[in-house]
Specification:
The chain has no helices and ten strands. Strand 2 (21-28) and strand 3 form a beta hairpin. The strands form three sheets. A six-stranded antiparallel beta sheet has the order 6-3-2-1-7-8, with no helix packed on it. The chain has strands spanning 9-12, 21-28, 32-35, 40-45, 56-61, 64-65, 69-73, 78-80, 82-86, 92-96. The radius of gyration is 17 Å and the shape is elongated. With 103 residues, it is mostly beta strands.
Length: 103
């Protein structure tokens, strides 16, 4: 079970976007996540008539290492670590380490 999943609200811990919050759009490989609006770059792209791609400056988000993000805890309004616990049906679930609440 992964600690960070697609759709989680995260806060950035390190890098040029430190302190920003965003939502995980995609898990890239195993250790990288793509967060909406974080690590944004511009790329100058040539037109490609065979694929129908127009040229120009394209904005997109690059992946960031999972160690540089923490899941956002709305109760404490800070980033938090993720632990694992079991509910009453003995199913594994993710919990916040600081207060033990279910994610």
């Amino acid at each position: 079970m992964k600690k960070i999943r697609k759709g989680d609200d995260v806060i950035i811990l390190a890098g040029k976007d430190k302190g920003k919050r965003g939502t995980v759009n995609k898990i890239v490989e195993q250790d990288y996540v793509q967060v909406q609006g974080v690590n944004a770059v511009k790329k100058h792209q040539k037109p490609n008539p065979s694929t129908g791609a127009t040229g120009g400056i394209v904005n997109f988000d690059l992946p960031i290492h999972v160690s540089n993000v923490a899941i956002y805890n709305p109760a404490s309004k800070k980033g938090d670590r993720v632990g694992f616990g079991y509910n009453s049906d003995q199913k594994k679930m993710r919990v916040f380490r600081s207060n033990g609440e279910k994610i």
